[in-house]
Amino acid sequence: MPTDNQLEFHLPAPPVSGDMPLIPARMVNEFVYCPRLAYLMWTQGEWAETGDTVEGNRVHARVDRPSAPLPAPQALEAGEAPASDKIVSRSLTLSSTGLGVVAKLDIAEADDGVVTPVDYKRGKRPHVAQGVYEPERIQICLQGLLLEEHGYRVEEGAIYYAESRERVRIVLDDDLRTAARTAVSELRLTVSQSRIPPPLKDSPKCPRCALVTICLPDEIRSLSGSSLAPRTIAVPPDEALPLIVQSQHARIGKEGETLKITDGEKGEAQVRFIDISDVALFGNVSITTPALAALLEREIPVTFHSHSGWFRGVAHGVGHRNVEVRTAQYRLSFDEAACLRFARELVAAKITNQRTILRRNWRRAPEERQTALDRLGAARKSAGGAATLAQLLGVEGDAAAVYFRAFAGLLKPPEDKQGGGELAPFRFETRNRRPPTDPVNAMLSLAYAMLTRHLTIALASVGLDPYRGFYHAPRYGRPALALDLMEPFRAIIADSVVLSVVNTGEVGPSDFVVAVTGTALTQAGRRRFVEAFERRLSQETTHPVFGYQVSMRRMLLVQARLLSRFLLGELPTYPHYLPR
């Protein structure tokens, strides 16, 4: 059996060859600090801005402006460089296939034939024995090694701390050089093996890490059996929110750093790009090429919907570059047994949440409620034992029939003041669509379309392909994975919004147009319904697994992240959303 004293055999990294990319020295810094952080950033292309990273960019603004290059090594050694006390070159990029490293030096100072790399850091100098932290020592050493590879003489490096305005000298001794080369080799070996390092255990580094909401260290360990409760994710408020344009014949253009929306009825409005998370266009809304290009450049997705809200498609920039997670997704999607296991749990979660909605919102005779709950409970058990996808589809269909027959018992129709009875528009008998034939079905269809939009964006943002699922069959233009992930959220988000707007009177019978071609919300009614839907996404709830508060909007993204971790083999199962 393995023991803590078992020896480890360290394999060398494969040689750099062909089109293998060189590793930035900054990534080696991150690897020494946290191997998982470096892997997420370098291999999977993950990143998130925080106040600290923005401040760091501000500190680097001056040194990021390139200046005159260093004189050739021979010129420095021979004293042929321009006469001055010190030669300073800013933003100098060097690379070496021998080291397998590339780096952009903030400053390279040449004095009396010796070159000193200087790295700028935000914050204050740390009070540690070696003067600076080990990751920074490794990074500055790699910069010195790169200078030596290009023929320069290097004896030491330095780090300048902007906040305390202190410069710390770092001697590039043999031990530091060996440690730097070893770190490069270990990072390249990790990357070549496509082996994501495990998250740190209860580390004080995690809460302030820019990628904590992407890495999910405590969550991964909790789902893998750790007894430690996950720490609350300290996420900032949703400062960037969806921009939803519903006014027909509205036109969207670009003006500086804003989108300008021109509406013949309501005039003009401007929204800053930094305040927009995504854009949704309903019906006959036009957008100019410069505006669309600006949104794509900023990776702000634009979704297109029919007048009644049917999700038509999405436009986004180059998208997430994480090939690993898509490869894992495609591999599982062709494994019929794995897809069936995933789908059984998915349908069971959906039925469980349908039961939750019935329990919370029932308005009629208790015995009818219990009958429906019992039948849904039986369907949930049957879903867990389904032998084929076809059988599972049958179980899901039967459960949906029971649920929607009981759905009328959750609605509170407005009273007809003159006749004393209930108004017909909110009487619900069965689920129908394409087109919906009554107001309740019209709102359900719109809510499902909007939920599909949000999940399509969430899945794409974590590197998954929204169009290749495990339960819903792939079809041209169909976001099958978004539909998969949506199943447990249909009742909890979409159906609950419909119940809310009907039972509170926020949407009334006059907000619908009924025709031979179907039933649809009026523009004013759709605007109020969309507002109610977005409010629901902004509501905070307790995460059923981790126990901390998170908005439903953030919950969708967390579930997409957990799905990617499951596909990459970090979690034994995918935790479907089941509110308590």
Keywords for this structure?
580 residues, 6-stranded mixed beta sheet, alpha/beta, elongated
Description:
The chain is an alpha/beta fold. 42% of the residues lie in helices and 17% in strands. The protein is built from 17 helices and 18 strands. The strands form 5 sheets. Strands 1, 2, 3, 4, 5 and 6 form a 6-stranded mixed beta sheet that branches. A 4-stranded mixed beta sheet has the order 7-11-13-14. A 4-stranded mixed beta sheet has the order 10-9-8-12. Helix 1 (25-33) packs antiparallel against helix 2 (35-42) and helix 15 crosses helix 16. The longest helix is centred in the middle third of the chain and has 26 residues, at 336-361. It starts with 22 loop residues before the first strand and ends in a 13-residue tail after the last helix.
Q: What is the count of DSSP helices, taking H or I runs of 4+ residues?
A: 17
| Proportion of residues in extended strands | 15-25%
Inertia-based shape: elongated
Could you tell me how far the N terminus lies from the C terminus, measured between alpha carbons in angstroms?
40 Å
Give the helix proportion (percent range).
40-55%
Low-confidence residue ranges: 1-9, 416-423
Biggest β-sheet description: 6 strands, mixed
Q: Please count the beta strands (DSSP E, at least 2 residues each).
A: 18
| CA-atom Rg in angstroms | 29 Å
**Class computed from helices, strands and strand pairing:** alpha/beta
Mean pLDDT: 82
